[in-house]
Amino acid sequence: MSGHSKWANIKNKKEKTDAQRGKVFTKIGREIAIAVKEGGGADPINNSKLRDVIAKAKAANMPNDNITRSIKKAAGDANAASYEEITYEGYGPGNIAVIVDVVTDNRNRTAAEMRHVFSKSGGNLGTNGSVSWMFDKKGQIIIERDVDMDEDEVMMTALDAGAEDFVSDDDAFEVYTAPADFSIVREALEAAGFSFLEAEVKMIPKTPVEIADAETVEKIERFLEHLDDNDDVQEVYHNGNLPSDDE
User: Fold this and answer.
1) Selection from 88, 89, 94, 102 nearest residue 208 by Cα
2) I need a surface site. Which of 65, 155, 227, 240 has the fewest CB within 10 A?
3) Alpha carbon of 198 to those of 10, 41, 95, 239: distances in Å?
4) In sequence order, what are the residues at sequence separation of 6 or more whose Cβ sits closer than 8 angstroms to the Cβ of residue 34?
5) For residues 5 and 246, what is the distance between their CA atoms, to the nearest angstrom?
6) Among the listed residues 6, 3, 228, the one whose alpha carbon sits nearest the alpha carbon of residue 121
7) How far apart (Å, rounded) are the C-alpha atoms in residues 226 and 219?
8) Residue 199 and residue 205: Cα distance in Å, rounded?
9) Which domains can be identified in the chain, with CATH numbers?
10) Is this prediction's pTM over 0.85?
11) Residues with pLDDT less than 50, the chain
């Protein structure tokens, strides 16, 4: 979960165990619940927020049956409305800037848990805005590169739909958009027949910080694992560029 998606990281996500995938699907299910309640109902045609979450679910290899069940459950579950989205900011090991997005049904419990994880790692929670100025909020779409793909076609489809930037490497194409344009660009690429490895709006560090010290790297990775293990945590963003990010 570094600032910039690396091919190795994406492959690692795809190769998670069944138990890990189950946890990811549960977290996406919560996002679906919020999208249904706040985005305009259970029909993706009329709910752009739900369409975006469905695209994220598909990129995570969540089965269509699971997605459908999550939508139906959210539509018929009054308790789903009790979930709320909260963002925490602070500093982790190595003084890296960290942003944590959570979805919780108990604000006090989650706040206490976040304080504990940050404190135990040697970091500290800050106030809203304390580190977010170091990041840009961008839509990011990752498309696996295929030998039959025409790079110019992919690029022009993205740019014509309103993308801000297009990055090509040996294994994938990365498309960046303004948050407001993410849905339009994603849907244009989807309509053109492209499938996604990742598709979501995220916080991307303006200036990643190189972390070379092995002990600090280990502390950061352990800290990130503790955050990921928390059921309320949806996404974690940080500005540390770890050696493993470039493998």
Assistant:
1) 94
2) 65
3) 8, 24, 28, 19
4) 80, 83, 85, 103
5) 10
6) 228
7) 11
8) 17
9) 7-81 (1.10.10.200), 84-133+206-246 (3.30.70.980), 135-205 (3.30.70.980)
10) no
11) 1-5, 246-247
